[in-house]
Amino acid sequence: MAFEELLNDPVIQKYLHELVGPTGMPVAAAPPDGEVTDEELAEELGLELNDVRRALFILYENDLASYRRLRDEDSGWLTYLWTFEYDSIPEQLESEMHRLLDALNERKQYEQDNEFYLCGQCQLRFEFGEAMEFGFECPQCGSQLETMENSRLVDAMERRIEELREELNITDETDADEVTDA
Ligand SMILES: [Zn+2]
């Protein structure tokens, strides 16, 4: 099997699992050395050919696999020879984490910059401006809107942001610029 070291990483396993799903995972998790056909994979892994093809196509769309076509001279049949290209996974994961971090920072800012009101009946949330427009009454059920504490949500976001920063080795000195540039 190729890329064994990469595939031992639970983060990478989870990443692949999210891409191809449980049915595609046997394909994604055991890339052979060199080229392989979809039929060979299906037979080797005891999977439906369609499931194998689906997984391969998802990997292809995410730049994690490539193929070349061979035409059989006699029958005219096309054979697809697949190669797994996992070298870029760590890089891809890292840029995805940067994107997530940016989004979280933005969302946290939004939560901190705004005041929110809640309808306890409908569990609908309104920004201050909206709540004021509705006269602090729920437009759906007419209940009184109440101020909503979101500090627990902000705390949870802060923890996740801290985790991501640690995983990405972002120190305070490298801070904001690098995060927004990524
Ligand atoms: Zn309501």
Automatic annotation (TrEMBL):
According to the UniProt entry, the coiled-coil residues are 147-174
Cite the Pfam families for this sequence: TFIIE_alpha
GO BP terms in the entry: regulation of DNA-templated transcription; transcription initiation at RNA polymerase II promoter
SMART domains, alphabetized: TFIIE
Instruction: Report the GO molecular function annotations.
Output: DNA binding
Q: Which residues form the HTH TFE/IIEalpha-type domain?
A: 8-90
Q: Which PROSITE patterns match?
A: HTH_TFE_IIE
The record's InterPro entries line, in alphabetical order, gives:
TF_E_archaea, TFE, TFIIE/TFIIEa_HTH, TFIIE_asu, TFIIEa/SarR/Rpc3_HTH_dom, WH-like_DNA-bd_sf, WH_DNA-bd_sf
Family membership, please give it.
Belongs to the TFE family.
What's written under domain? Answer: The winged helix domain is involved in binding to DNA in the preinitiation complex.
> What is the designated name of this protein?
Transcription factor E
Q: Which organism is it from?
A: Natronomonas salsuginis
**Name of the gene encoding the protein in the UniProt record:** tfe
